[in-house]
């Protein structure tokens, strides 16, 4: 033990350049060190991850401007840890493992070298940045990353005709599919409807990006790494026990995480303290249709509600009895295209009515809980033909519903008392608003997926505000406002979580340690500062991000 202490002290002195105030004296870290490379010297923004042998937990931190990283002693236990890094274009010079004894801070000097093959490291945003073409020309690729990464396209060898056949096959798959587990629609849509009128041009463009004509003619680009406040963070990844697809993740007042399962009929429950995962089977309503749920919401009584996707309607989970109650669409309303991806029970006790969307119309239904009757609105039926849909839906304090026109550019409103429908176009055309939250001031915060912006619509003044996210091709998916007035979002392309100061408009970007297909974002306001949660929809993990300032 004495030799360990002397070695640790010597390395700490090396890190501080021989100053008398060593890291050991300043820090209660369980594991710390520095990261450097021959090309850059000391490196900022490198994600360093530690995983104890046999554990489902990976803890990660980020190196600062001096190349220094530090794992708080509260985040690790004694044992042997394998270390890995994430910094596009670099890899560890050799495998590294460390013995951590909490009474003796461990120190690591990580040396990085240029990666032999950068392609597995590239995020979707980095692939898009590397591809030739204009941003508008490349935006249709956002629709591909729900099922697989863009590396699959870049490494393919299809010509234009081959891509047309691939696109037809993709259009036959249900939304809740993954590259390893596709689900086929009962009634296939117009084979190329999802790709729009330019599908032939898109197929030809894809054939210029891949290896059908030989090696790539373009350079592969890495985005700038995180810096400054973005390095002040601890990230914990909890691997789930099997290949689940946790789409929406929320945390209750007891610190327990609940998640919807995107391609199976289960509600998931995960306790971070015991690492126990439980699954509650959801009754199947339509055996021949794709399985899985999407939206997960809490009602005023503390019960959980989920949208039932292609299984029809919505589902309520009673937290006390742990029983489900299904509310399928009635005969005459349900059809082969019916798809409920969102449910709005946030204020249903105001008038005893619950809202739900229907992507198959597209439109909105409202269920009267007393009578079981459904009402339906088709907000776009009198508009010129165009790409419109209804996605995120959020009830205000009077149970008026506000919805996102994910196909177009509107925030819609249906008045609970009168049924009056109004569409409010976002300041940015073709913004494709996706998901968000209603705050306690009846303001809707939402992500403008195609416009690379965060939006806010004040439902009382009927005014918009917009903020552009800092990194190109982020594709923000969802937005949440925390108790401190900070706005959180994340995209499906960059593997980064963003926090914005509303007063200044300043963004902080936190890098994630693993490729993460992000959907619903959640902020736990019971911690100080608030903690961010998200599911990794493609890699069966829950991710907790704790900012340190």
Shape: globular
DSSP strand content: 35-45%
Approximate helicity band: 10-25%
- Please give the count of helices: 7
Structural class: mainly beta
Features:
37 strands, five-stranded mixed beta sheet, disordered N terminus, mainly beta, eight-stranded antiparallel beta sheet, globular
Report a brief summary of the structure:
The protein has 549 residues and is mainly beta.
Which helices and strands occur, and which strands form pairs?
Blueprint: H1 2-15, H2 23-26, E1 29-37, E2 41-42, E3 47-52, E4 57-62, E5 68-72, E6 79-86, E7 90-92, E8 96-100, E9 106-114, H3 124-130, H4 135-138, H5 151-154, H6 160-171, H7 199-209, E10 233-239, E11 246-251, E12 257-261, E13 266-271, E14 276-281, E15 296-298, E16 304-307, E17 314-318, E18 323-327, E19 343-344, E20 353-358, E21 363-368, E22 374-377, E23 393-395, E24 401-404, E25 410-414, E26 421-425, E27 433-438, E28 443-448, E29 453-458, E30 463-468, E31 476-481, E32 486-491, E33 496-501, E34 507-511, E35 521-524, E36 531-536, E37 541-547
Parallel strand pairs: 1-9
Antiparallel strand pairs: 1-2, 1-5, 3-4, 3-6, 4-10, 6-8, 7-9, 10-37, 11-12, 12-13, 13-14, 15-16, 16-17, 17-18, 19-20, 20-21, 21-22, 23-24, 24-25, 25-26, 27-28, 28-29, 29-30, 31-32, 32-33, 33-34, 35-36, 36-37
Characterization of the model:
With 549 residues, this protein is mainly beta. The protein contains 7 helices and 37 strands. The strands form 8 sheets. It has an 8-stranded antiparallel β-sheet, with no helix packed on it. Strands 1, 2, 5, 7 and 9 form a 5-stranded mixed β-sheet that branches. A 4-stranded antiparallel β-sheet has the order 11-12-13-14, with no helix packed on it. Helix 6 packs across helix 7. The model is unreliable at 1-26 (pLDDT under 50).
């Amino acid at each position: 033990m004495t030799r360990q202490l002397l070695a640790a002290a010597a390395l700490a002195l090396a890190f501080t350049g021989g100053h008398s105030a060593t890291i050991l004296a300043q820090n209660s870290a369980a594991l710390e060190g520095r990261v450097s490379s021959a090309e850059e010297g000391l490196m900022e923004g490198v994600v360093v991850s530690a995983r104890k042998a046999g554990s489902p937990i990976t803890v990660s931190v980020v190196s600062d401007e001096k190349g220094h990283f530090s794992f708080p002693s509260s985040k690790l236990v004694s044992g042997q840890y394998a270390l890995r890094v994430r910094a596009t274009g670099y890899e560890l010079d050799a495998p590294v493992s460390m013995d951590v004894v909490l009474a003796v801070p461990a120190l690591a000097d990580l040396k990085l070298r240029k990666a032999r093959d950068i392609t597995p490291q590239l995020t979707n945003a980095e692939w898009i940045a590397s591809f030739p073409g204009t941003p508008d020309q490349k935006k249709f690729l956002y629709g591909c990353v729900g099922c697989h990464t863009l590396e699959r396209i870049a490494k393919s060898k299809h010509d234009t005709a081959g891509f047309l056949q691939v696109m037809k096959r993709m259009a036959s798959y249900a939304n809740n599919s993954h590259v390893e587990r596709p689900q086929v629609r009962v009634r296939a849509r117009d084979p190329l409807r999802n790709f729009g009128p330019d599908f032939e041009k898109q197929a030809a463009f894809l054939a210029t990006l891949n290896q059908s004509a030989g090696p790539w003619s373009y350079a592969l680009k890495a985005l700038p790494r995180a810096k400054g406040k973005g390095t002040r963070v601890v990230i914990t990844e909890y691997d789930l026990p099997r290949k689940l697809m946790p789409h929406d993740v929320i945390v209750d007042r007891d610190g327990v995480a609940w998640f919807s399962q995107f391609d199976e009929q289960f509600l998931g429950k995960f306790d971070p303290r015991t690492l126990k995962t439980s699954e509650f089977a959801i009754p199947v309503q339509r055996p021949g249709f794709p399985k899985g749920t999407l939206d997960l919401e809490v009602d005023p009584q503390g019960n959980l509600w989920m949208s039932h996707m292609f299984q029809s309607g919505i589902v309520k989970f009673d937290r006390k009895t742990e029983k489900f109650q299904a509310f399928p669409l009635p005969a005459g309303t349900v059809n082969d295209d019916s798809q409920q991806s969102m449910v709005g029970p946030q204020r249903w006790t105001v008038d005893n009515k619950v809202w739900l969307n229907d992507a198959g119309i597209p439109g909105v239904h409202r269920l009267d809980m007393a009578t079981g009757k459904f009402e339906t609105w088709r907000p776009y039926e009198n508009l010129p033909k165009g790409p419109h849909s209804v996605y995120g839906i959020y009830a205000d304090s009077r149970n008026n519903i506000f919805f996102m026109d994910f196909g177009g550019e509107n925030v819609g409103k249906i008045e609970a008392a009168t049924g009056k429908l109004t569409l409010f176009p976002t300041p940015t055309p073709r913004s494709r608003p996706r998901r968000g939250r209603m705050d306690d001031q009846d303001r809707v915060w939402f992500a403008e997926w195609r416009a690379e912006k965060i939006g806010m619509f004040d439902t009382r003044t009927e005014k918009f505000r917009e903020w552009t996210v800092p990194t190109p091709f982020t594709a923000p998916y969802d937005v949440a406002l925390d108790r401190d007035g900070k706005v959180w979002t994340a995209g499906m392309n960059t593997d980064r979580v963003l926090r914005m100061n509303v007063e200044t408009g300043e963004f902080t970007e936190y890098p994630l340690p693993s490729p993460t297909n992000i959907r619903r974002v959640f902020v736990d306001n019971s911690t100080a500062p608030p903690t961010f949660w998200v599911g990794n929809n493609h890699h069966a993990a829950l991710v907790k991000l704790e900012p340190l300032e």
